[in-house]
Amino acid sequence: MAVHENPRRNSGFHLPSFRGNRTTSASESAVPALTGTSTARAYAFASLRLLTGFVFLWAFLDKAFGFGYATPSGNGWVDGGSPTKGFLGSVSAGPMQSTFHSWAGDSWANWLFMLGLLGIGLALTAGVALRIAAVAGTTMMALMWIAEWPPAKHLVDGSPSMSVNPFVDYHVIYAVALIVLAAVAAGDTLGVGRLWAKLPVVRDHGWLR
User: Fold this and answer.
1) pLDDT tens digit string along 114-167?
2) How do residues 57-97 score in pLDDT, each as one tens digit?
3) In sequence order, what DSSP letters do the residues of 37-99 get, joined into one string?
4) Backbone dihedral region of 75: left (phi > 0), alpha (psi from -120 to 50 degrees) or beta?
5) Model's pTM, two decimal places?
6) Please, are residues 123 and 133 in contact by the beta-carbon 8 Å criterion?
7) Cα–Cα distance between 128 and 141 in angstroms, integer?
């Protein structure tokens, strides 16, 4: 007589397996983490853009109307003052000293400087044309760096230049900030960069982005 063993039936009870759940939970939690990091980065760049834009806008307004800070009251551009005469006329170091002296106070220099400050400030504040603003701003910062000439230890009269760093000063930092803001399209957050990018002329000419 053959004896047949009955197959063991599945009792329906299983110990929970945490391996699959752990993998799933890790994958699901990674998505919000990445999203949160991306959002934080976007807002950080947008904040940098707005603050840098205010620096340029304030410089324009103070030089135009003479608020009594860098530009004395009554000596604003609208009052007949020159936005470039004081700065360029006082250049006392560097290879372009005589050139800057010849430019100081010229009408074309005043207009170009003021329009540059205003245009860069508005572009950064609105978040549009950041590539143009980066090129214009970097050019302006480079000229101002040359005018102050941080590598010089002494001025032409022999007095100390008081340069705090012979290579990297705030002009270099502003220039790099402008380039970074354009590279990451910082106008898409807290700005109208996305709407600007959808304009047909901007789509056809990427340098306007």
Assistant:
1) 999 999 999 999 999 999 999 999 999 999 999 999 999 999 999 999 999 999
2) 999 999 999 999 999 999 999 999 999 999 999 999 999 99
3) HHHHHHHHHHHHHHHHHHHHHHHHHHHHH--SSSS-TT-SGGGT--TTHHHHHT--SSTTHHH
4) alpha
5) 0.84
6) yes
7) 20
